Amino acid sequence: MRLRITFEKSGALRYTGHLDLHSLWERTVRRARLPLAYTQGFHPGPKIQLASALPLGFIGRAEIVDLWINEPGDALERNFKERLQPSAPPGLLISSVEVVDEHSPALQTQMVSAEYLVTLLDPAERPGLENGISALLATVALPRERRGKTYDLRPLIESLCLLPEGESGCLQLKMCLAAREGATGRPEEVLDTLGIPFETTRIERTGLILK
Amino acid sequence: MAAGQSAVSVIIPTMLSPEQIESRLERMLLKVQKPGRYVGGELNVVVKDWDEISTKVALVFPDIYDIGISNLGLQILYDLVNQRPDALAERAYAPWVDMEALMRSGDIPLYSLESKHPLAAFDILGFSLPYETLYTNALNLLDLSGIPLRSAERSATDPLIIAGGHACFNPEPMYAFIDAFVIGEGEEVIGEIIDTVKNVKGQTLKVNDVGHSTFDRELLLRELAQIPGVYVPRFYDVSYHEDGTLASIIPNVPEAPKTIIKRMVAKLPPPTTRFLVPNIDVVHNRVSVEVMRGCTRGCRFCQAGMITRPVRERSVEEIVQAAEAAVDATGAEELALLSLSSSDYTDILDLVTRIGEKFGDKHLTVSLPSLRIDTVSVALMEKLKDRRSGGFTLAPEAATERMRRIINKFITDEQLLETARAIYARGWTNIKLYFMIGHPSETLEDVQAIADLCKRVLVEGRKALGGKAKVHAGVSTFIPKPHTPFQWVAVDTVEQIRAKQELLMHELRGPAFKLSWTPPEDTLLEAWLARGDRRMAEVVYAAWKNGTKFDAWQDQRQFEAWNAAFASQELDPAFYTHRPRQSDEIFPWDHISDAVRKKTLYADYSRSLEGEIRQDCREECYACGILPTFAATRREFPGIYWKCPEVKSPAGGKQTAAGGG
Fold this sequence. Notes:
The complex is a heterodimer.
Chain A: E1 2-9, H1 18-31, E2 48-50, E3 59-68, H2 80-84, E4 92-100, H3 107-110, E5 111-120, H4 126-138, E6 143-146, E7 149-152, E8 157-162, E9 172-180, E10 183-184, H5 187-193, E11 201-210
Parallel strand pairs in A: 3-11
Antiparallel strand pairs in A: 1-3, 1-4, 2-3, 5-9, 5-11, 6-7, 8-9, 9-10
Chain B: H1 18-26, E1 55-61, H2 65-68, H3 72-83, E2 87-93, H4 97-105, E3 124-128, H5 135-144, E4 160-164, E5 180-182, H6 189-200, E6 204-207, E7 210-213, H7 217-225, E8 230-231, E9 236-240, E10 246-251, E11 260-261, E12 287-290, E13 292-293, H8 303-307, E14 312-313, H9 316-330, E15 334-338, H10 348-359, E16 365-367, H11 375-384, E17 391-397, H12 401-407, H13 413-425, E18 430-437, H14 444-465, E19 470-477, H15 494-507, E20 513-517, H16 520-531, H17 535-545, H18 559-568, H19 573-577, E21 592-593, H20 598-609, H21 626-629, H22 631-636
Parallel strand pairs in B: 1-2, 1-3, 3-4, 4-5, 11-21, 12-15, 15-16, 17-18, 18-19, 19-20
Antiparallel strand pairs in B: 5-8, 6-7, 9-10, 13-14
Helix pairs in contact in B: 5-17, 6-7, 9-10, 10-11, 13-14, 14-15, 17-18
């Protein structure tokens, strides 16, 4: 049986990386006493698939994971969300659990784009930033270099705008970036072109868009 | 300096609030490796309401999170303190060098992972000192907390600084920096210390909205000195002979006992099961259940085996239940059944069978350390066999009959080879053999025998498995630790150690062998710190000033800075390590008692020189001193879970314990 879980990853878990999150899910399922399925072979591993790696420090508001479990015999045991949530570590909040087709394609291959909300922790001039965004969106190409490889950032930006002033008084950016295999836009690259050091921001991934 | 000073006259240092610390951290954490070390938020963490709790304890492990988080002692104390409604325990570990640099430049003091309070806001800082190479880190953490390093310089507003752990059986190299040491087991005494602090505490001042207690330190320390097992170093005067050896250690106040006898928990309390589960990968991702405490083997080099006596066992039932509860509470993938000598646990077969049945299909690795070298051990491990690892560890420690008699760990080569045959035959491809070089009177022939024995083990492996068989020789260097029969022995010189290691490197070449060893500098450093007197405290301080920290890390340790520190104090490091001792030398730790008598240790050392074996003391009591010291306790707790003989004599009798007089 394949379960698709949408969850929030926040608090101290912001600083838990992708591989460690994998172990966190493994332990959560074990604590919930759900029969997690394991791969066959000499080094059996739990069958867990995360849709997309969330960079360290980001908050995830609607992350997605698929877990395979061996069919629980008891129909009462199907309250998966109620069973899993009490076993989850602080900062891991389950929004929904649904049973999906066992043989549907891997989550990673279904990713299309991701939405982000960026909060600027330091005060900044609104007009200046608005101009920067307009200029950025007006460009045809944004050649950049990352880990020694050049690529064009511009086509990876699907949308980018400044939000109206919120209660906190901090400026907030909203953006939607491509997240296909081999074509993933990174919010910190966008921030860098705008001259905003990413350590002065709080980045939340608010949504994952699947095919 | 601060003694007797009234609280109001003291200038209180500024203190950041948790909110300020958190907001500074958020901008910093993505610049360091593994920021998950610095945020807490683990499963099973306890965060209490700061303002509602009267006594706040910060438990400090002075190495990085990745190592400290799985320390069983700290987890036990965390659990125990947090069970009290009137106290809270939070944690702090040593930040790695990248984080420390940012904390210093960003003015962030050391803070607790739970509530992000600065450590200086706690009432008690309890340092865990299981090994000596944490000393400079402990100083560094006090400095990062903005707390005066020296006990004598602390004032009414500073926290009480205590320390415990095996290294504290010679507390003297840290005497100047720790207000009070706990000698021995901490489970009961921690509560007594909290009670005392609670009673002595004066007014609470608010600084930047953070409550800050004040103490009459002199009064507090005098009260603490009266708790059995608590050592307050300022209440003792030390004098030296002209040759640098000790002349006397004498209490200077009536409250301080002449000898501080270790604490020993008569019946092991229920095991901790609500372990903290880290959100990042750490060195040991496991939960541990202590099967028994203490050891009856009497290996003459082994400090743990001497200072943790008597042997006390938990029941199979209690262990299995605790293991189940711990796995349920954590979802752990590894369970460690801890003891100094697993094979000696009375019901080991029953225990292993039940654990194997219970967890066999749960994708759980069970580890069982320190097995005896015999085929029974192989059968035991077979029941627990972990499909994910290919190694089996044995610790012969020495490779010739002469050496084995000297160290009192006697097995025959044939026993080892037979065990190795059984291990390889059952599919383990790699045998790890622990040896120690530098034992008293060891020659190069004895070292050659280590290499020869490894080769003979490999021959057995080749017979069973062909080219797949491997031998890993882990060869450490002997350090004559306090409170052992070998405490009179000198350490090998760097040249002697190098010659022995080079011989092994030359002999154990090729892809089938792996050899690991301890750099001689590390051995010397640990030996200086283990054997130091009060003058060593200034060396530790100078070394820290010279920039040493993380001395347990080979890539961080700065040996030259230590040599410079000795030079600055005009002390000769060789005095502490390369000097054989007279039988009547007063050691810096002689006022600290683990209840095993010094004369018993010396008699055993003499026996060693004669090559005389002494068998397991379960077979026959050798009157080491434990029973006379704890006769009343033994009388109160009769039964088989203590491995000492019963005490039959009436209460009130003096030193008339059976076999113990």
